[in-house]
Structure formats: structure tokens, C-alpha cells
User: What shape does this take?
Amino acid sequence: MSENQYDLAIIGAGPGGYHSAIRAAQYGAKVALIEKDKLGGTCLNRGCIPTKALYASSHLIEKIKEADEFGIEVSDFKLSFSKAVERKNQVVKELVDGIEALEKGWKNDIYNGFGKIIGGNIDTGFEISIEGEKNTTIKAKRIIIATGSSPALIPAFNIDHERILTSDDILDPNFKIIPKRLLIIGAGVIGCEFANIFATFGSKVTMLEYLSSPIATEEPMIVKVLQKKFENLGIDIHTAKNVLSVENTGNGVKATTCSADVPRDQTENAEKDIFEADLCLVSIGRAKESKNIGLEVVGIETERGAIKVNPKTLETAVKGVYAIGDVTGGIMLAHVAYHEADVAVANSLTSIGGFPSEEMKTDYTVVPATIFTSPNIGSVGYRRKIAKNLGFDVLMGQFPYQSLSKAKCMGEEEGFIMVLADKTTHKILGASCIGAEASELIAEIALAMKHGLTIHEVTETIHSHPTISELVLEGCEAVVGKSIHKKGRPIHH
Ligand code: NAI
Assistant: This one.
């Protein structure tokens, strides 16, 4: 194969793209990885990783405040958000460098520039132009589009990147301010993670949410625990608020809202509430990055910006071109993009032939989700209401951290796990957890669900003592009233 000819070209090097490139190289494919910005995409540079690095600082603040209880007198301590940001930047840099080293280790060619499909088909191969420091054109037998998403922008919110910001602005390596008052529009995952970090660093945080609950996708009981914690942090959450406009007033921001109950065509005359702050974060969802990449040239179809794919194979309307991750408008999670990368790589290389790959299909039946607030939230499978609506006869077991010896030792008594199982088969239908390491705990339930295990198969597995992982064991035991460390009910057979 000549120098600029490839088996597979991948446009976008976020979690979906960089993972695809490495996986394809493992099968022996010649790979081009095209990225206009830094390797790692949103997750590494402007998403999961920088927020978790800042979260680590804010969590430490919480721990220092409790130090006295643990026999450590901390008479004085000062917060430096700019140092926390520098540490965050270093974490990001090391991980981005790590991705580059991995790609190079697999001999994948990295092209820095904006990739655009300019022609071709599955028989002749595709041509891609790359506009960057060096403009060039490459050829590839197959393409995976993994161009991701960016913060959704609404004109009325006047995002000026000065006072009215997106998560990209806040995670910029040079953003080092803790505003006195921060207004957050959208109390979803991003909004709640930032509210937690900034309130812990001392901002007075106010959140405006359209729906009647923050993170409405999670179990109401779980959200209640988070709301209580947020209240203690001084975070005000205003739900059922329709934000009509946001303005930069020169020395602050002003949001005008009305009740979400007011029909959209009658908001002009509705009663208004005004919220003011120093800075505003708009976190109301994300838009797909599908513009100007040549989709129309070859006939790839989109729907409201999302690239349409066969949900099982991830092939687009054009044979030989696949799309994965946020740009497809599916579940916008890095780990879902990893899974889709495996599927798209396997299918594209199998269709070329000559690689040790086999066709794969997507499987979204078990997708764990984690929210890095303090306490953490982890969930997987069905929520209780949805399981009931689907006709399952649901058994539920709950177990609190308070009754777990390891959690007590750690001073992490807040929160609980709830496990759902089918009444007839006792197979696990889902679980939700809020508390210490909830984001890690949920992995065990995900594995159990993926393999169709019953609660008994989990409880018959010896769990190390004393560990936080015993929460999963006791949660599963609680489903049938067999939890040892919680008052239950006698067992009936
Ligand atoms: P989201 O969909 O989680 O939350 C957006 C929130 O904004 C919703 O509650 C929505 O009702 C509200 N909203 C929308 N328009 C509004 C308006 N005009 N006024 C007031 N509220 C409004 O989206 P978010 O938080 O921006 O996150 C984007 C994606 O990134 C999600 O898919 C999320 O799962 C993912 N993500 C995942 C993380 C993780 O796994 N830990 C961390 C951060 C983001």
C-alpha cells in the first residue's frame, strides 16, 4: 500500500476515534487517525477527565473539613483554584501524551487537521482531504466517523465565552476563576458536576432547570440524597424554570425566566423571575459535530445533525462508512463510544477481508452511568418506574452505607444502594447507588446483568470484608430480605 493509502481512516480522535485506531491496529490494519485539535477529544480535554481532576481537588476540600473528626487538626488552609487547574492541566497533558504514545506504538499515522470526505465508494475506496498545517489527501478502504459533539448553543442565551460560558470555556486550561456567584442553566449531569465543584470551592451556586427535577434520568430517591447534599453546600436549585434569555450586563449576568408550565407561545406575558450572578454556565445538552465533513458528498444521511447509522452494525447510509459515538446522537458516554468503536472496527475490517476479525453487533442492554458529584452516583439497567411500566414484577432491595462497617471507618455514611430484581427469576434488572465509590460499585452489577445473573449468584460470591463492595452484596441480599446487617423480614419460601 502506498504511503497515503489506508485500510481504515478515522475522523476524530476522541474516545471513539482513538480507541478505534488502536483496535484496528491490533487486527493488523493500516490506520490513519485524523484530528483537528488534541488527541482525546472532549472526554480527555474538555470533559470527563478535567472535571474528574477538579473533582478530586473539591473532594479533598471536603475531607480536610472533616479532618478534625479523624484526629487531625487542620488549623488553617487556603484554597487555590488556579493550582487545582494547573494540576488538572497536567493530568490532561499526561493522558493526551499517553494516547499519542500508544497510537505511535501501534504505528498509526496521526494527521493534525480537519478531515473531510471528498469522494469515493466502497469499491474504489474513499478520499479524504485534511486541512491543517500541511494540507493533504489520503485514501482509505473504510472510514469511521467519530467527530463527537460540542455544547449546545441557544441564541437567546447569548453565550459570549466571557461571562456566559459553556463547559468548554470553564475547562479551558486558562480558566482559573472562582466566581462569587455562579448561575448554572441546566441541572443535568454537567450542571450538577460543576455545581458541586464550584460550591465546594466557595461559589454561591444557583441552578435553573426546565424539568421538575435535577438529573431527571436517575431514580427519584437517589436524586433526593443529592439535593440534600447540595442544600448543605448552599446550592439553590430552581426546577420547572423556563429560561427565556441570558444577558451579560457588563459586570455580571442576568437570566430572565418564567414557569415551565407557561405554554411556549405565551411566555411574553408570563410572570418573570430574574436571577443574577457574576458568571453563567450553560449546560443544556450537546450538539452533534457533523458539519463540513463531506457527508453530503457521498450521501451520508443525518437527522437533526446526528449521523444516521444501522443501530446494530453502525454502518451509515453509505456502505463502507461507519459512525460512532456522540455524533450519532445515541447515548453520549465515552464508554459507549468505546463499545461502538469495537463494533465499527470489527465490521469494517471484516468487510475488507483478510483480517482476524468477525462481524459484531452493538449491545446496549447494559450501560452503566456514573455522575461525579459528591456523593457519586452510579446506575445501570432499568429504573424502578420503567421496569414496572415494562411489565416486570419488580422486587427491590436497599442497603445504606451507614450500616456498612468499611463506610463507617471511612466516615462515608451517606447514601445507599437499591437493587431491582425480577420477582419470578430473581435476575437483576438494574441498580442505582449514591455514596462513596458508587461509580465503581456499579461495575459489579453491570457484569452480573450482562451475564444474566440472579441476585443469588452475586450473594453466593464471597466479597472481601471490610470493603465498600459489600454494599452490592448486602443490596442483593436485601432484595429477598436476607441482608445480615439490616433489619429485614423473615424469609418465606
Ligand atoms: P443533560 O441532558 O444531562 O442535561 C441537560 C439539562 O438541561 C436537562 O436536565 C434539561 O432538562 C436541562 N435544560 C435543557 N434546556 C434547558 C433550558 N432552556 N432551561 C433550563 N434547563 C434546560 O446534558 P448535559 O449535562 O449538558 O450533558 C451532556 C452529555 O454529556 C450527557 O449525555 C451526559 O450524559 C454526558 N456527560 C456525562 C458525564 C458522566 O458520564 N459523568 C459527565 C458530563 C456529561
